[in-house]
Amino acid sequence: MTDTAQEPMLAADGRPLKQSLARALRRQKTRALLMIAPLLLFVMLTFVIPILSMLMRSVENAIVPDTLPGTVAALSAWDASSGRAPDEVVYRHLFIDLFKAAEAKEHTKLGTRLNYEQTGQSSLFRTSGRKLDDLAEPYQDAIEDISPDFKEAAFWYELMSGEDGSALLAQRRDLWNALVGEELSGEAGFMPSAQIAQLLPWTARAYTDFALWSALVKNDTVAEERPWEAVYAALAMDLEDPAKRQAIADYDGAGAAQLQALAAAQSDLPAVRLREGFIELNRSWGEPRIWTTIKLYSPRYTPGYFLNAVDMQLSPDGAEAKPENQQIYTQLFKRTLIMALIITGSCILLGYPVAWILANLPARTANVLMILVLLPFWTSLLVRTSAWKVLLQQQGVINEILVWLGFVDDANRLVLMNNATGTVIAMTHILLPFMILPLYSVMKTIPPSYLRAAKSLGATNWTAFRRVYFPQSVPGIGAGSILVFILAIGYYITPEIVGGTSGVFISNRIAYHISSSLNWGLAAALGTILLVVVLALYWLYDRIVGIDNVKLGG
Amino acid sequence: MADTQIKDAFVEFERVQKSYDGENLVVKDLNLALPKGEFLTMLGPSGSGKTTCLMMLAGFETATYGDIRLDGVSINNIPPHKRGIGMVFQNYALFPHMTIAENLAFPLEVRRIGKSEREKKVRRALDMVEMGEFGGRRPAQLSGGQQQRVALARALVFEPELVLMDEPLGALDKQLREKMQFEITHLAHQLGITTVYVTHDQTEALTMSDRVAVFDDGRIQQLAPPDRLYEAPENSFVAQFIGENNTLEGVVTEIRGQTCVVKLDDGEVIDAVPVNVSAVGERTRVSIRPERVEYNKERMQEGAHTLKAKVLEFIYMGDIFRTRLSVAGNDEFIIKTRNAPDQERLRPGQEIEIGWMAEDCRALDA
Ligand SMILES: Nc1ncnc2c1ncn2[C@@H]1O[C@H](COP(=O)(O)OP(=O)(O)OP(=O)(O)O)[C@@H](O)[C@H]1O
Ligand SMILES: [Mg+2]
After folding, report:
1. Minimal Cα–Cα distance from B271 to chain A, Å?
2. Residue A472 Cα to ligand 2 middle (Å)
3. Is the Cβ pair B111, A458 closer than 8 Å?
4. What is the assigned CATH class of domain A329-549?
5. A62, A88, A317, B294: which has the fewest C-beta neighbours closer than 10 Å?
6. Where are the domains of chain A?
7. Which is it for the CA torsion A74, A75, A79, A82, positive or negative?
8. B168 C-alpha to center of ligand 1: Å?
9. What average pLDDT does the segment B2-16 reach?
10. Residue A5 has pLDDT above 70, yes or no
């Protein structure tokens, strides 16, 4: 209150004037806000949020750590530059993770994801996922030979159940949720034993995974289901450790006798050699580059898509340029920008005289001609573009006329389509109204007396146009150019139809990744770059021309 | 129209006709000649063809028929930018994207005048209209009056011999308009420029011009110096259009050289000067200026013709009294009297006798 007392200006009621004004304005502002609220909400829900979530995909990479949580953790200790594949323990984690993923049929998705970075991964994961049971079978058979009780679902359930295992249960449940990408609901009907979890960590984890899967997804009773083959393999891994065998001797919980018998006969179990097993399934598992890729793409967020979008790739030494023959995107961005500029330029050249004539004709004639300018809006874009196809073909109308007139030899007809020329011609036609309309509305506001004044002051027609008329029409050119350029840079249908391979835009590539290759992350990264380029150009335009120099009329 | 033919005319319109649509003549048979240094005003009601005449002279419209000559050369042979005609437009037409100084430098630049000389001339022109400090501003940052002066300076900066102005003061308030009227005439005479000025404000026309051409219906109705125009209108349009005027309608009964006798419609018979009547029996409108009518017996001149009148309305206007009377069946008869100490203030309903001299009373076309 003390410094408000120092405020010199007071309103009639004794409050500081600033405060009173702010209060008066606040009501206006609130009303304005309420009026735009429905639209704002609509735009947020249907436009901004989807776009933001789409853009998020350009860096999101959760699928790798979610599908292979154990493997990713174990791989962190592996040195990618060592030149050899990781140790047995990484393969064990891979086995458990992949087994789970194969049960949930999620392993092929990971294959598809990693295939974006390295071809061949997709089939590697698909085929390996199918044969994991074979890897585990020897251990299952051997264990069941030693102690037939391990054939019984109920025995397993009793052995693994216990107290205080809720931490393990919650952790495994979170991993399942992450893997299947949704919140699994329901009761597990199983509580792991903390003692067993300490004694047989691999087994406890694998069995808990199995139990959760049976209960939550399959809706089976855990006690009646025989565990996965992977659980037997996990048990074999646990039993390999002499320290654990020692501890089993002191164990006295449920199934202690069978477990101790198994530990005593451990030497009869086949040695756990999953590394060799995997390499036998597919030789690729022994190659360090597979593991390098997995390791590079193991974080939840990755710059990989963006690097891809600018023809670079991740490597153990950081980002590096892709081999020359795989570079396509920078080229495509450049081409898109240049062609959008050419289209904008031809729209200015073709549209300016038309707008000038329209603005200087009597209103009635101008209105009729304006309808002709707007006519293209009344026909479908697809129809118009297809019409261009008819015109531009080598056997098309334009070539026929040129040949008939003798301008072009019948043998070398002009190639006007399926290249950049076709795209520029068709898109200039389609976007021309967006140039003419702002130009026209700006020119309409330039009184003819300016030109007359200039001429009376001694300027020739050309000087009067250049020095007086043209500068005043620049805001119209600016508005038209921004419209045309931004529309052109994101155009998709027309280049797709008449552009061939050398006339397509970056948007066609984005569309391809969204609907055909399903590499949404790369599509999102390309889209984000396009957005940033447009914003940067807009900023540049503002710096050079000034955005308040853009008028759509009046 | 003897006074349209001048020996060494600088600007000449000869039998000029103009039609925009091929159906109506906007300008019909225009003959006009003005000598170097003259300030001529085209005055007329809206749509009478004033701007059209100006545009033909400036070269933005071509005459449909006839010849326009500038300094003896047919104007059709000179493109607009070579005519060297300064022009002030009704909306000023200052280039909005240039500063005031750039606007003024424009005509000099296109004439390829060197930079230092250009700057000197621009400064001089701006000083001339007392706008010296505003050179760096844009037109939109000036008031209407300031823009007007800049437009004037721009039309004069390249020292044209002929300046055309199309209602340049139309957008200004009364006081500023009067000030600018004075400044424009002053400048025009000082620089010795020939000026064609368009207005539909008759006061402006009378106070500024050497001669006034009254336009109506595409024709010059009268071309004369302001005093002649006011005191000796040649037809009833001019009499009505310039200043206030009383008309009495009747039939000519007798013509004797410089006087004629008119029998008014209510039977009263008066004497008048025959201006636009040629034969006995013709209908005529007799025109008398309000200030030439006297009702005070003592001031009435010898030989004045008197008539009975009834006061309908008395309007106090400060410097003068304006009284509306009913005279010979005309209820719109106005008389004006000076607000002198001994002047009687008439009351509505009062019956009085008014009188005027026959030479102030002009018999014009009906
Ligand atoms: N470009 C044009 N096309 C067709 N008719 C026109 C054109 N310009 C003027 N006219 C017509 O010519 C006539 C005279 O017009 P002009 O502009 O010369 O009048 P003015 O005397 O300048 O009137 P004002 O005092 O209102 O400016 C008008 O009836 C007008 O409608
Ligand atoms: Mg006019």
Report:
1. 52
2. 25
3. yes
4. mainly alpha
5. A317
6. 2-57, 147-268, 329-549
7. positive
8. 17
9. 74
10. no
Q: Count of CB atoms within 10 A of residue B322's CB?
A: 15
Copy the structure tokens of residue A191. 């509580």
What is the distance between the alpha carbons of residues A522 and A117, in angstroms, rounded to a whole number? 11
* E strand segments, B205-318: 211-216, 219-224, 246-256, 259-264, 269-274, 283-288, 305-316
- The closest residue, in CA terms, to atom 1 on ligand 1 is B20
| Half-sphere exposure at residue A396, Cβ-oriented, CA atoms within 13 angstroms | 15
Q: Is B52 in the pocket of ligand 1 (CB under 6 A)?
A: yes
ipTM confidence: 0.78
- At position A268, the amino acid (one-letter code) is D
Residues of B in contact with A459 (CB under 8 A): 81, 106-107, 110
Q: Select the residue of B93, B110, B158 nearest A463 (Cβ to Cβ).
A: B110
Instruction: Tell me: pLDDT of A553 over 80.
Output: no
B11-18 β-sheet, strand order? B27-34, B11-18, B65-70, B73-74
Measured CA to CA, the distance from residue B59 to residue B42 in angstroms comes to: 18
Judged on CB neighbours under 10 Å (0-12, 13-18, 19+), A429 is: buried
Residue B53 CA, closest ligand 1 atom number: 18
- pLDDT digit string, tens, across residues B268-296: 888 899 888 888 888 999 999 998 898 88
pLDDT band at A345 (very low <50, low <70, confident <90, very high): very high
Q: How far apart are CA B104 and CA B73, in angstroms?
A: 28
Per CB-CB distance under 8 Å, the chain B contacts of A461 are 81
* CA-proximal residue: ligand 1, atom 13 (nearest): B47
Name which residue sits closest to atom 31 of ligand 1, judged by CA: B47
Residues A344-353: what's their mean pLDDT? 96
- CB–CB of A227/A100 below 8 Å? no
Per the CB < 8 A criterion, the answer to whether B302 and B335 are in contact is no
Could you tell me where the DSSP H helices lie in chain B? 50-58, 100-110, 115-128, 144-156, 174-191, 202-208, 226-231, 236-241
Nearest atom of ligand 1 to the alpha carbon of B55? 18
Q: How many angstroms separate the CA atoms of A496 and A499, rounded?
A: 6
Report H helices in A397-549.
397-405, 420-444, 449-456, 461-464, 470-489, 493-498, 506-515, 520-544
CB-based contact A456 B91, cutoff 8 Å: no
Paired tokens of B19: 């039609």
Tokens representing A314? 């991740």
- The two structure tokens encoding residue A232: 């037997």
pLDDT tens by residue, A277-309: 999 999 999 999 899 999 999 999 999 999 999
Cβ separation A457–B95 shorter than 8 A: no
Strand partners, B306: B355
Cα dist from B307 to A290, B287, B355, whole Å: 125, 15, 6
Residues of chain A numbered 429-458 and touching chain B (CB < 8 Å): 447, 449-450, 452-458
Q: At which residue do the structure tokens 């500023």 appear?
A: B176
Cα–Cα distance list, A442 to A100, A553, B38 (Å): 66, 5, 41
The interface residues of chain B toward chain A in range 86-125, judged by CB-CB distance below 8 A, are: 86-87, 89-91, 93, 95-97, 106-107, 110-111
**How far off is chain B from A344, nearest CA to CA, in Å?**
25
Ligand 2 center from residue B167 Cα (angstroms):
7
